[in-house]
Amino acid sequence: MVVSVTVKGGHWTAVEPVQTPYSPPSEYAAPVLAQQALAAQSDAIDGVSGATYTSYAFRDDLAQIVSRSRR
Q1: pLDDT computed for residue 70 by the predictor
Q2: Predicted local confidence at residue 46, as pLDDT
Q3: 29: Cβ–Cβ under 8 A, 6 or more apart, which residues?
Q4: What pLDDT score does 33 carry?
Q5: In this predicted structure, what is the pLDDT of residue 50?
Q6: Distance (Å, whole) CA 43 – CA 1
Q7: pLDDT at 69
Q8: Helix or strand or coil: residue 1?
Q9: Close Cβ partners of 30 (under 8 Å, ≥ 6 residues apart)
Q10: What is d(CA 4, CA 61) in angstroms, rounded to the nearest whole number?
């Protein structure tokens, strides 16, 4: 899972899944996870029931983005 976050003025303006595993749970979950991240403005998202691995991968990629942005 690869995620892109666009930041403008210190706020996330877009969160987009760039690379998503080809599976029905991932295809369904990715847009929902992106909406959760944009609303939370962080990697603290709930995830999507039935797409546990996708949710973990999405959250992990967001956490890496947040970590790199603090350096």
Answers
A1: 78
A2: 94
A3: 47, 48, 50, 51, 54, 55, 58
A4: 97
A5: 94
A6: 14
A7: 83
A8: coil
A9: 1, 17, 20, 54, 58
A10: 9
Sign of the C-alpha dihedral computed for residues 37, 22, 48 and 67 taken in this order: negative
- Write down how long the chain is: 71
CB neighbourhood size of 34 (10 A): 20
Tokens 């029905």 -> residue: 24
Four-CA torsion 57, 58, 60, 66, nearest 10 degrees: 160
In Å, how far are 23, 71 from 34, measured between CA atoms?
17, 23
d(CA 2, CA 10): 21
Angle 22-62-45 from CA coordinates, rounded to 5°: 90
Average pLDDT for consecutive 10-residue bins of the chain (71 residues)?
A: 93 94 92 97 94 95 90 71
